[in-house]
From TrEMBL:
It is found in: Cytoplasm. Keywords: ATP-binding, Cytoplasm, Magnesium, Metal-binding, Nucleotide-binding, tRNA processing. Pfam families: TsaE. InterPro entries: T6A_TsaE (IPR003442). Its main location: cytoplasm. This is tRNA (Adenosine(37)-N6)-threonylcarbamoyltransferase complex ATPase subunit type 1 TsaE.
């Protein structure tokens, strides 16, 4: 197996993070999975919300509120022909619960955004993009986030280069 590719990007504001999420969302297709990690308050749900709303808007769908699925565990959205799953696995205690949610099938057929992916254990798809958000120095830069992107599937190299280029244009 190939070594994972890694790239770090710093965003000075929530708007910068949103812009990148929007650009990434425009390039995603069914079967694409993003695993969102980071501490509470790092911006995982903010990132997912921006990506989902942009995808809905681009597809000409009603752009609805996108709440964090902390208590519902999974929220689904229909974007034209594409289904988007936003999962928050924080409250899960065993990988059997992941299978009960239907996530394994969604990984193949939908765009999936998964917060707290450590709860997936060995069920995490090998072709997923792992995205970790970390506050840089909250005392000096309270809104700055460092995003570390890790992937093995070569398709993400092309997608990320295009999304970063567009976000910084």
């Amino acid at each position: 197996m190939n070594s994972p590719a890694i790239r770090s990007v710093t965003f000075d504001s929530p708007e910068g993070t949103s812009e990148f999420a929007a650009c990434l969302g425009e390039l995603m297709a069914p079967g694409d999975v993003v695993l969102l990690s980071g501490p509470v308050g790092a911006g995982k749900s903010h990132f997912a919300r921006s990506l989902i709303q942009t995808h809905l808007k681009r597809s000409g769908c009603f752009v609805e509120d996108v709440p964090s699925p902390t208590f519902t565990l999974v929220q689904t959205y229909h974007s034209g022909e594409t289904e988007i799953w936003h999962a928050d696995l924080y409250r899960l205690t065993h990988t059997d619960e992941v299978e009960e949610l239907g996530l394994m099938d969604a990984f193949d057929t939908a765009i999936c955004l998964v917060e707290w992916p450590d709860r997936l254990g060995d069920l995490a798809p090998s072709n997923a993009l792992s995205l970790t958000l970390e506050p840089e120095d909250v005392d000096v830069f309270p809104e700055r986030r460092v995003m570390t992107l890790t992937w093995q599937d070569p398709k993400w190299t092309t997608i990320l280069e295009a999304a970063l280029r567009k976000a910084h244009a």
